[in-house]
Design goal:
Elements: H1 6-10, H2 32-41, H3 48-58, E1 63-66, H4 73-86, E2 99-104, H5 108-121, E3 129-132, H6 138-145, E4 149-154, H7 156-164, E5 175-179, H8 181-184, H9 187-198, E6 205-210, H10 215-224, E7 229-232, E8 243-249, H11 255-263, E9 271-274, H12 278-290, E10 296-298, H13 304-316, E11 321-324, E12 339-342, H14 349-356, E13 366-372, H15 377-387, H16 405-420, E14 473-476, E15 479-480, H17 531-535
Parallel strand pairs: 1-6, 1-7, 2-4, 2-5, 3-4, 5-6, 8-13, 9-11, 9-12, 10-11, 12-13
Antiparallel strand pairs: 14-15
Helix pairs in contact: 3-4, 4-5, 12-16, 14-15
C-alpha cells in the first residue's frame, strides 16, 4: 500500500477498530465542527455505504465504493476528507492558484451539488470551497482560484481550460475524488482524465464512487488506485429497492399522447421525464405545452443560467415536470420526485439505473414508467439482464386517446429526424459548448476540409455564416456550402460548360472573364486559404 505521511497520520484520531458496527455519526470520531454541522442538518444514522466507507477513508486509504443511488455517497467521501483537513496540526493553507482537494464530476449540476455538500458539512471549519464548470464566465473562476482553495469541485473540461490558461496548478492536490466514476472513466472522459492525473502528485489519496461499475471500467479504476479498499453494499447495477418499475409497450407515434394522459393525473406531484436526445427533450416540452401541461427542459444545448433556473423551479415545485437527457441522471438529488418516465429507453443499460434512482430517495417510494417501442425491446432486454430482474408490463391507462394516423406519422418523422440530427462526437453531459471531452476549444474535430465526419458535430470555428458575413465555398462548381452561387461569381448556366475532352487553356485568362481574379496565394476575399483548390482536379 502506498506509504502515507506518518507525521500527518499521527495527528489524526482514527476510529476504534474494535467497533464492528456504526450506528451513529458520533461513532466515527469525526471532528467536533463536522459533528455540529451534521446535527444541524439532521444527520443521525449513517447509511450502509457511509458506515463502511468513512472509516477506511479516514485512515487515508484509497477506496472504490459502489452503492445504489440516493444512499449518501457524497457524504461518504466529503466527511472523511473534511475531518483529515480539520485535524491537521499545524493547519496548512492551500497553495496559490492551487487546491488541496480535487473532486471531479461529469456534469455541472452534480458538481454544484457536491460543492454545496462540502460547504454544508464544513460550515464551521475555516476551509474554502469553489466549484468550476463550463458555460459561465471563466474570469470570475480565475479570480476565485488566485489565492488558492482548499476544496475544488470541477468538471474535466473547464478544469483543463484553467490549467491551459495557467490559472490553476495541481501540484498541491492531496485528495482526488471521482464521483460517478464509471462515466468519468468511460471513453468520453478518459482522455481528459489521463491528462489530469499526469499533473497530480503521486503521493495522494484517491476515492472513487459510483452506483455502477462495469468490469471493463473497474479495470481502468485499478490503474488509478493503489491497494484500494473495495466497498460494495449492493451488487453492481442493482436498482433502488423502493422503486416500483413498469414498462408500457407503445408505438413511437403514441408516446407523446400517452405521456400527456399520465401527467393529467393530479396525484403525480413531481415528474422527471428522460429522453435520449436534446432535440427530443425540446420536442416533448412543446407537446406538453400543446396539452396545457407546464414543463421545462434541461440538456446540453441550454445555457447554464437556463439550466439553473429550470432545476431551481423544479426543486421549488413551481415546475411540476422536468424533461431532461441523461445530464440529470447522474447524482442530482431533488427531493419529492414521485415519478420517473423514460420517454426513450437508454441504449446504455447502466443509465437506466441512474435514471430511476432519481425517485425513491432517502427512504421514500417512487414509480418508474418506461415507454418501449419495437426498436427498444433490445434495450429492455439489456436492462433486465443487467439488473437481474424482469420489469413488469403495465397496461395502457384508462382515458388514453391514441393520436390520428397523421399525427402519429408526424411524431414518428420528428423522432427520426431528431435521431439523425448530428451531434458532437463523444460528447458527455457537462462537456461544454459541444467540444469533445479532452479537446480544447478551437481544435478541429472533423476531416481535412474542416467539414465534420458523418454523425460528428461541427467545430466552433466552422459555424454557419451569418447573413452579413461572406460565405465560404467548398470548391464544387462555384457553389457555397449552403447551396447558392458564390458572391462575386456568376453561376455557370446549365449545359454551357467546357466541351468534354477539351483541355483548359494554359497561361491565359479564363474563358469566363467575368470572374474576379483570385488573390495571390490562393486565398479568397474573406481570408480563408484555398490554394489547394487550384491544384485539385476538375
Amino acid at each position: 500500500m502506498r506509504a502515507v505521511r506518518c507525521a500527518r497520520l499521527a495527528a489524526i484520531p482514527l476510529p476504534n477498530p474494535k467497533k464492528n458496527t456504526v450506528t451513529q455519526f458520533t461513532d466515527f470520531g469525526l471532528a467536533a465542527p463536522i459533528l455540529k454541522a451534521l446535527a444541524q442538518a439532521g444527520y443521525v444514522t449513517p447509511t450502509p455505504i457511509q458506515a463502511q466507507a468513512i472509516p477506511p477513508a479516514m485512515q487515508g486509504k484509497d477506496l472504490c465504493g459502489i452503492a445504489q443511488t440516493g444512499t449518501g455517497k457524497t457524504a461518504s467521501f466529503a466527511l472523511p476528507i473534511l475531518h483529515r483537513l480539520a485535524s491537521e496540526a499545524p493547519a496548512k493553507h492551500a497553495p496559490r492558484r492551487g487546491c488541496r482537494v480535487l473532486v471531479l464530476a461529469p456534469t455541472r449540476e452534480l458538481a454544484s451539488q457536491i460543492a454545496d455538500s462540502f460547504k454544508e458539512y464544513g460550515q464551521f471549519l475555516k476551509l474554502t470551497t469553489t466549484v468550476v464548470f463550463g458555460g459561465v464566465t471563466i474570469g470570475r473562476q480565475e479570480r476565485a482560484l488566485a489565492n488558492g482553495v482548499d476544496v475544488l469541485v470541477a468538471t474535466p473540461g473547464r478544469l483543463l481550460d484553467l490549467i491551459d490558461r495557467r490559472s490553476l496548478t495541481l501540484d498541491g492536490v492531496e485528495y482526488l475524488v471521482l464521483d460517478e466514476a464509471d462515466q468519468m472513466l468511460d471513453l468520453g472522459f478518459i482522455h481528459a482524465l489521463k491528462r489530469i492525473v499526469k499533473l497530480l502528485p503521486a503521493q495522494r489519496q484517491s476515492l472513487f464512487f459510483s452506483a455502477t461499475m462495469p468490469k471493463n471500467i473497474a479495470g481502468l479504476a485499478d490503474q488509478y488506485l493503489k491497494n484500494p479498499v473495495q466497498v460494495a453494499v449492493t451488487p453492481v447495477a442493482t436498482t433502488a429497492e423502493r422503486v416500483d418499475q413498469k414498462v408500457v409497450f407503445v408505438p413511437t407515434g403514441s408516446k407523446q399522447a400517452l405521456l400527456g394522459t399520465i401527467l393529467r393525473d393530479a396525484s403525480i406531484d413531481r415528474v422527471l421525464v428522460f429522453t435520449r436526445t436534446k432535440h427530443g427533450a425540446d420536442r416533448v416540452v412543446r407537446g406538453l405545452e400543446r396539452d396545457g401541461i407546464g414543463s421545462a427542459a434541461i440538456h446540453g444545448n441550454k445555457s447554464q443560467p437556463q439550466r439553473e433556473r429550470a432545476l431551481a423551479a423544479f426543486r421549488a415545485g413551481t415546475c411540476r415536470v422536468l424533461v431532461a437527457t441523461d445530464i440529470a441522471a447522474r447524482g442530482i438529488d431533488v427531493e419529492g420526485v414521485s415519478h420517473v418516465v423514460n420517454f426513450d429507453l437508454p441504449n446504455v443499460p447502466e443509465a437506466y439505473v441512474h435514471r430511476i434512482g432519481r425517485t425513491a430517495r432517502a427512504g421514500a417510494d417512487g414509480l418508474a414508467i418506461s415507454f418501449c417501442n419495437d426498436e427498444e425491446r433490445a434495450y429492455l432486454r439489456d436492462i433486465e439482464r443487467l439488473t437481474r430482474q424482469k420489469v413488469p408490463v403495465m397496461a395502457i391507462p384508462e382515458g388514453f386517446v391514441p393520436p390520428s394516423r397523421e399525427e402519429a406519422a408526424q411524431a414518428v418523422a420528428e423522432a427520426e429526424r431528431d435521431r439523425r440530427q448530428p451531434g458532437p462526437r463523444g460528447q458527455r453531459p457537462g462537456g461544454g459548448r459541444g467540444q469533445q471531452p479532452g479537446q480544447r476549444q478551437g481544435q478541429p474535430g472533423g476531416n481535412r476540409q474542416g467539414q465534420p465526419r458523418h454523425g460528428a458535430g461541427r467545430p466552433q470555428e466552422h459555424r454557419e455564416p451569418r447573413a452579413h458575413e461572406p460565405r465560404a465555398h467548398d470548391g464544387r462548381g462555384g457553389q457555397d456550402v449552403r447551396g447558392g452561387p458564390q458572391e462575386g461569381r456568376q453561376a455557370r448556366p446549365q449545359g454551357q460548360g467546357r466541351p468534354q475532352g477539351q483541355p483548359r487553356p494554359q497561361g491565359g485568362p479564363r474563358p469566363d472573364g467575368n470572374r474576379q481574379q483570385r488573390p495571390a496565394g490562393g486565398g479568397n476575399r474573406d481570408g480563408r486559404a484555398i490554394g489547394w483548390l487550384d491544384r485539385a482536379p476538375r
